[in-house]
Design a protein that fits this description.
The protein is built from nine helices and no strands. It is mainly α and 178 residues long. The protein is elongated, with a radius of gyration of 18 Å. The chain starts with a helix and ends in a 6-residue tail after the last helix.
């Protein structure tokens, strides 16, 4: 997972994979079937970890607090020293060769699902009176989805944790006033 996260699907060679895992080519094919099948497993593993904190924060807190915690936690997660920077889903396969369109579509779907989860949380917040009734939920979810993906790219480009936390603070200023 870390190798794919760091280098992307196309940037990770078969030789990189077997060398990192310390297995032979035949063992690799017996265990995973193909590089693409392993990539799918890596995405699922990443989603079980990152998706866990993401959904936990969305559901656990009052609406504005959830989004504030989501953006600040993203800043912390995207700049951890013990893993590649950014978000594997945000930075992976946004641009790839035509033969890899299935992977691009898979990751685009993951990003759409995350944005959908944010929109659903915003709808719950609107029902509770946490947002003005005229709030464009889809646009607000797209805004925060774009903010998180932008923070992931910033982290990938070397932005510090403090810089991402400042971006998160600025992003929260866009929160609709009741």
């Amino acid at each position: 997972m870390r190798l794919f996260w760091d280098r992307g699907y196309e940037g990770t060679s078969f030789d990189d994979l077997i060398a990192t895992m310390g297995i032979s080519a035949s063992s690799f094919y017996n265990a995973f079937g193909s590089k693409e099948a392993l990539y799918h497993e890596a995405i699922e593993t990443y989603m079980s970890v990152a998706g866990g904190w993401f959904l936990d924060i969305l559901m656990k807190y009052h609406t504005i607090t959830a989004f504030r915690n989501l953006t600040t936690t993203a800043a912390m997660e995207f700049t951890r020293d013990d893993q590649p920077s950014g978000c594997m889903i945000s930075v992976a396969a946004t641009q790839c060769s035509p033969g890899q369109s299935r992977l691009r579509d898979l990751l685009a779907s993951q990003r759409t699902q995350a944005e959908g989860a944010m929109a659903e949380r915003l709808r719950v917040g609107m029902s509770a009176g946490d947002l003005p009734e005229n709030t464009d939920i889809e646009a607000l979810a797209a805004f925060y989805g774009s903010l998180l993906r932008g923070m992931a790219v910033q982290a990938r480009d070397g932005a510090s944790r403090d810089r991402l936390l400042e971006i998160a603070r600025i992003g929260m200023r866009a929160w609709p006033a009741i």
